[in-house]
Amino acid sequence: MILGVVSDTHNRVDHIKKIVNIFNSNGVDYVIHTGDITQAKSLEQFSLLKAKLLGVFGNNDLEEEGLEAVCIKYGFEFQLPPLVINLDKKKIAIFHEPEAIEGFMHKEDNLDLILHGHTHRYRLEEINEVKIFNPGECAGSLKGKNAVGIVNLEDMEIKRIFF
Predict the structure, then answer these.
(1) Residue-range domain boundaries for the chain
(2) Hey, which CATH number is domain 2-162, 3.60.10.10, 3.40.30.10, 3.60.21.10, 2.60.260.20?
(3) Are 138 and 146 spatial neighbours (Cβ–Cβ below 8 Å)?
(4) Which tens digits make up the pLDDT trace of 16-55?
(5) 0.90 exceeded by pTM
(6) Can the peptide bond before residue 82 be classed as cis, meaning omega within 30 degrees of 0?
(7) Other CB atoms closer than 10 Å to residue 162's CB: what's the count?
(8) Which string of b and e fits 16-34 if b means at least 16 CB within 10 Å?
(9) How far is residue 113's CA from residue 151's CA, in Å, rounded to a whole number?
(10) What's residue 143's pLDDT?
(11) 115: β partners
(12) Above 90 in pLDDT, residue 76?
């Protein structure tokens, strides 16, 4: 199973269109957004995905009613973090802000992967056999480098795709 990971799109509809094309052309099964979509009109752009979209809301996702309406319309699954899912026999926790991760890891057993956003910075590390990944920003607002992630759950290979 292949996951697409995206974070911090911050209303960049032009970038979201590129992201959708990247994920569709890479045959991902699920796309996970780690927060900061910001507005409903941006979230709607993900309706062109061939994969199922799920994720968490970030600290800039203040247009709650509009975002929730888009989720209902397109069958997207979003909630406040953390979101814990099991896919392909892997236990995955999804956050926006990384500050809560360490405490969560002490309470939650059998995690394989933690995804987060918020920092707009790339992160890939392993702590106690748990991979922690942030693909970095997709809005180009801090570093000017836009990237998404692709995770192969079978072998836990993680790569970034720049656009």
Answers:
(1) 2-162
(2) 3.60.21.10
(3) yes
(4) 999 999 999 999 999 999 999 999 999 999 999 999 999 9
(5) yes
(6) yes
(7) 10
(8) beebbebbeeeebebbbbb
(9) 10
(10) 72
(11) 94, 133
(12) yes
Alpha helices in 26-118 (DSSP H): 40-44, 64-74, 101-107
pLDDT band at 141; cut points 50, 70, 90: confident
The DSSP annotation for 53-78 comes to EEEE--TT---HHHHHHHHHHHT-EE
| Distance in angstroms (rounded) separating the CA atoms of residues 144 and 163 | 10
The amino acid at residue 128 is N
Asked if 40 contacts 69 with a C-beta cutoff of 8 angstroms, the reply is yes
Residue 147 has pLDDT above 90, yes or no: yes
Contact in structure between 63 and 36 (CB atoms under 8 Å): no
